[in-house]
């Protein structure tokens, strides 16, 4: 039956690249979560909006579920195809479509890697300021689908702020060209923003128009060694109040240990419990004044100010290399957010909860502390099976979700809900909100074929 269905698709779109080999099904059927066994029907690789629309219309006719796929760098199971879905990969849609130097708008196909888009912007003397460690693999469409954040949110905001227009194919097979790059557009609902963070549940993001910005001025990079987490927010406030921050990140000793094991060089002669790294618009003298004040107040134990671009890159590697260095330990990840003033109280409670629940597990803490976003990674002991480890860690997400409710936070800051966080959506969103979300999906995807089972059932 599957062969007959695929023959119908080949007949409808004879130029479409369609993959069915077992290795391809496994490769394209999963994301970075690695918690589900991929089992897609096949992998379709369209090259145009029209091909995407034809695939969706075919899927409606044959009642085949679709999983939109970009770089599959997601960490919440949003790109998993484990139940016979057709994976609709945008891997071949990576072209630049238009650059408008007057409005500073760049339109690209959604399969383009974030790093490539940023390089194109730099070639025009501008920047696309959304940035994170997976920039070389993550697609621009995927970053829109999850409203990706990254290391420059503090200064430039999330992906949503930079999306001037979208071309999408919804679950009806309709091509929608949303906002079309307009700065002002009060002609009814802005449907563009419904597709930002929709995780492929409303349709396929095919083309993206982004706004570009002036490049940031040269930055000074500084690494702080801190005696406790309680010192992080006062240091952040001192930098923010006296200098112009571009980014502010933190990581703990556990996270640094694994980056060092992966080949990075230790920044200090001795370890410290916590570290913060920042880029600021400041000459070294201004930064030194803030640094010395923090030392005198007992909030900083040691520090480094990068003397060159190479040293700045080496310091940033300590933060950006964390995810890769933890990967061999198959970490159970949580991506949470609270308002920054509530961060110290939330972290103290969260650390106490996880310490009591998992006294024998390593837990690495890091994140975009300037915007209240924490990444919490529980590392799997070598002797524990993956299934037993995941089962044990489900309790961690439940504990964190309840803690987040008490502190007014969210169970997902930038990774999305996908499959991993779906059981906890109700602790972030009210019943009325979830009902409205279901209603919106029913309008754009009346047959429920777009990434079913993700976000909510």
Automatic annotation (TrEMBL):
<feature type="domain" description="FAD-binding PCMH-type">
    <location>
        <begin position="36"/>
        <end position="215"/>
    </location>
</feature>
<dbReference type="InterPro" id="IPR051264">
    <property type="entry name" value="FAD-oxidored/transferase_4"/>
</dbReference>
<dbReference type="InterPro" id="IPR016171">
    <property type="entry name" value="Vanillyl_alc_oxidase_C-sub2"/>
</dbReference>
<dbReference type="InterPro" id="IPR016164">
    <property type="entry name" value="FAD-linked_Oxase-like_C"/>
</dbReference>
<dbReference type="InterPro" id="IPR006094">
    <property type="entry name" value="Oxid_FAD_bind_N"/>
</dbReference>
<dbReference type="InterPro" id="IPR036318">
    <property type="entry name" value="FAD-bd_PCMH-like_sf"/>
</dbReference>
<dbReference type="GO" id="GO:0071949">
    <property type="term" value="F:FAD binding"/>
</dbReference>
<dbReference type="GO" id="GO:0022904">
    <property type="term" value="P:respiratory electron transport chain"/>
</dbReference>
<dbReference type="InterPro" id="IPR016169">
    <property type="entry name" value="FAD-bd_PCMH_sub2"/>
</dbReference>
<dbReference type="InterPro" id="IPR016166">
    <property type="entry name" value="FAD-bd_PCMH"/>
</dbReference>
<protein>
    <submittedName>
        <fullName>FAD/FMN-containing dehydrogenase</fullName>
    </submittedName>
</protein>
<keyword id="KW-0274">FAD</keyword>
<dbReference type="Pfam" id="PF01565">
    <property type="entry name" value="FAD_binding_4"/>
</dbReference>
<dbReference type="Pfam" id="PF02913">
    <property type="entry name" value="FAD-oxidase_C"/>
</dbReference>
<dbReference type="InterPro" id="IPR016167">
    <property type="entry name" value="FAD-bd_PCMH_sub1"/>
</dbReference>
<comment type="similarity">
    <text>Belongs to the FAD-binding oxidoreductase/transferase type 4 family.</text>
</comment>
<dbReference type="InterPro" id="IPR004113">
    <property type="entry name" value="FAD-bd_oxidored_4_C"/>
</dbReference>
<dbReference type="GO" id="GO:0016491">
    <property type="term" value="F:oxidoreductase activity"/>
</dbReference>
<keyword id="KW-0560">Oxidoreductase</keyword>
<keyword id="KW-0285">Flavoprotein</keyword>
């Amino acid at each position: 039956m599957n062969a007959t269905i695929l023959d119908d698709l080949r007949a409808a779109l004879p130029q479409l690249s369609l993959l069915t080999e077992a290795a391809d099904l496994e490769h394209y059927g999963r994301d970075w979560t690695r918690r589900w066994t991929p089992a897609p029907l096949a992998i379709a690789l369209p090259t145009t909006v029209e091909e995407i629309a034809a695939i969706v219309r075919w899927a409606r006719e044959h009642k085949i579920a679709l999983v939109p796929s970009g770089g599959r760098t997601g960490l919440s199971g949003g790109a998993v195809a484990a139940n016979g879905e057709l994976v609709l990969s945008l891997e071949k849609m990576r072209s630049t479509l238009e650059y408008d130097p007057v409005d500073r708008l760049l339109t690209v196909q959604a399969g383009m890697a974030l790093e490539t888009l940023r390089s194109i912007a730099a070639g025009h003397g501008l920047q696309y300021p959304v940035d994170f460690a997976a920039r070389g693999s993550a697609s621009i469409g995927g970053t829109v689908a999850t409203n990706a954040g990254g290391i420059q949110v503090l200064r430039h905001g999330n992906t949503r702020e930079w999306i001037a227009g979208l071309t999408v194919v919804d679950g009806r097979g309709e091509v929608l060209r949303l906002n079309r790059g307009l700065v002002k557009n009060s002609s009814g609902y802005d449907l563009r923003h419904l597709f930002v963070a929709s995780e492929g549940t409303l349709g396929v993001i095919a083309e993206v128009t982004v706004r570009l910005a002036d490049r940031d001025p040269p930055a000074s990079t500084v690494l702080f060694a801190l005696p406790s987490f309680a010192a992080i927010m006062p240091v952040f406030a001192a930098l923010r109040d006296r200098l112009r921050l571009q980014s502010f990140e933190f990581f703990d000793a556990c996270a640094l240990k694994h980056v060092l094991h992966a080949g990075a060089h230790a920044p200090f002669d001795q370890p410290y419990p916590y570290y913060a790294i920042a880029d600021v618009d400041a000459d070294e003298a201004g930064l030194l004044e803030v640094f010395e004040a923090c030392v005198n107040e007992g909030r900083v134990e040691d520090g480094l100010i990068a003397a060159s671009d190479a040293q700045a890159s080496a310091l940033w590697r300590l933060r950006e290399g964390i995810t890769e260095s933890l990967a061999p330990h198959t970490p159970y990840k949580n991506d949470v957010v609270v308002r920054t003033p509530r961060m110290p109280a939330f972290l103290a409670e969260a650390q106490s909860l996880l310490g009591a629940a998992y006294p024998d597990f390593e837990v690495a803490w890091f994140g975009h502390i300037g915007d209240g976003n924490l990444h919490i990674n529980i590392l799997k002991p070598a002797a524990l099976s993956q299934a037993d480890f995941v089962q044990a860690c489900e309790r961690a997400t439940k504990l964190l979700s309840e803690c987040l409710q008490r502190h007014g936070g969210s169970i997902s800051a930038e990774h999305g809900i996908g499959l991993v966080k779906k059981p906890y959506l109700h602790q972030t969103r009210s019943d009325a909100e979830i009902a409205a979300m279901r209603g919106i999906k029913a309008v754009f995807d009346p047959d429920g074929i777009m990434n079913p089972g993700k976000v909510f059932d």
